[in-house]
């Protein structure tokens, strides 16, 4: 485990590396159904800054930039392989140079206070080593009125692999409780391919 990436593991899909990591990124990048639904929940205004925790091969970042070329995107991922794949995705849209993507993990975001209008995590929050610490750090990075969106595979998805990976209701209850402790509010969204919770920074 790297001292620079606290909480990182060697699981091929958690921190993809080497040839298997590149293959994992290709597999993840083939399906952006959940990311499209998450995009629909992000009411990002023109020029807003969106920070993604665990951006993987960059599906959501690409969708954000394609929808609004003025949006600012930043984020962290513990995998150099994913960082490279995300940059390549954004390069095809001519947006790689203005995207601030870095190696990092939840709970230790390398961005200043009040940096982002939205923070989003798709299929990564269940792997965070310390949910409470990650939420507190996320709250620090958000501007007043900014939103945090946590999404995970839906148990009701028509795709078997997503149903297999879905978290139990107890996990969602614990996550909602943690969100309320830090943000004071939480809203749940049960969609086709993803389940999500949103919270707003005061």
Supply database-style keywords:
Rossmann fold; single chain; seven-stranded mixed β-sheet; disordered N terminus; alpha/beta; 202 residues
Task: Please explain how this structure is put together.
The protein is an alpha/beta fold. The protein contains 7 helices and 7 strands, in the order ααβαβαββαβααββ. α2 packs across α3 and α5 crosses α7. The chain has a single domain, classed as Rossmann fold. The radius of gyration is 16 Å and the shape is globular. The N terminus is likely disordered. It has a 7-stranded mixed sheet, with helices on both faces. The protein is 37% helix and 22% strand.
Q: Could you give a quick summary of the protein structure above?
A:
The protein has 202 residues and is an alpha/beta fold. It contains seven helices and seven strands; from the N terminus they run H-H-E-H-E-H-E-E-H-E-H-H-E-E.
């Amino acid at each position: 485990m790297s001292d620079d990436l606290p909480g990182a593991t060697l699981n091929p899909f958690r921190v993809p590396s080497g040839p298997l990591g590149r293959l994992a990124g290709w597999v993840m990048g083939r399906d952006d159904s959940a990311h499209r639904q998450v995009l629909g929940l992000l009411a990002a205004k023109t020029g807003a800054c969106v920070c993604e925790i665990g951006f993987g091969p960059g599906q959501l970042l690409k969708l954000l930039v394609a929808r609004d070329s003025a949006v600012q995107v930043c984020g962290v991922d513990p995998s150099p392989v994913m960082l490279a794949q995300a940059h390549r995705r954004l390069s095809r849209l001519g947006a790689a140079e203005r995207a601030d993507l870095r190696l990092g993990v939840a709970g230790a975001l390398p961005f200043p206070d009040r940096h982002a209008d939205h923070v989003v995590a798709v299929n990564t929050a269940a792997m965070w080593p310390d949910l409470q610490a990650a939420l507190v750090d996320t709250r620090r990075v958000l501007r007043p009125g900014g939103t945090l969106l946590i999404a995970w595979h839906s148990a009701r998805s028509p795709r078997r692999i997503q149903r297999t990976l879905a978290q139990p209701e107890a996990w969602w209850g614990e996550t909602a409780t943690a969100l309320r402790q830090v943000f004071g509010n939480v809203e749940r969204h049960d969609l086709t391919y993803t389940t999500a919770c949103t919270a707003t920074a005061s």
